[in-house]
Write a structure and sequence with these properties.
little secondary structure
């Protein structure tokens, strides 16, 4: 039996492969927390403009 071409054969997952490394960032224990000082805990950031040609999402009762 010949080895299959790796470019035309999809890779099969191996269960003994190590899990990917995940990093969770969190504030230091002594960091300033806005909730404790009565400030609003979230900041608004701009992530761009909406595409006017994109259809809006359906309302919950339309799904």
């Amino acid at each position: 039996m010949t080895n299959p071409d790796p470019l035309s054969t999809p890779a099969q997952p191996t269960f003994d492969a190590p899990a990917p490394q995940v990093t969770i960032r969190h504030p230091a224990p002594d960091a300033h927390l806005p909730i404790q000082s009565g400030e609003h805990p979230y900041r608004e950031i701009s992530i761009g403009r909406a595409d006017p040609t994109e259809a809006p999402l359906p309302a919950d009762d339309e799904v």
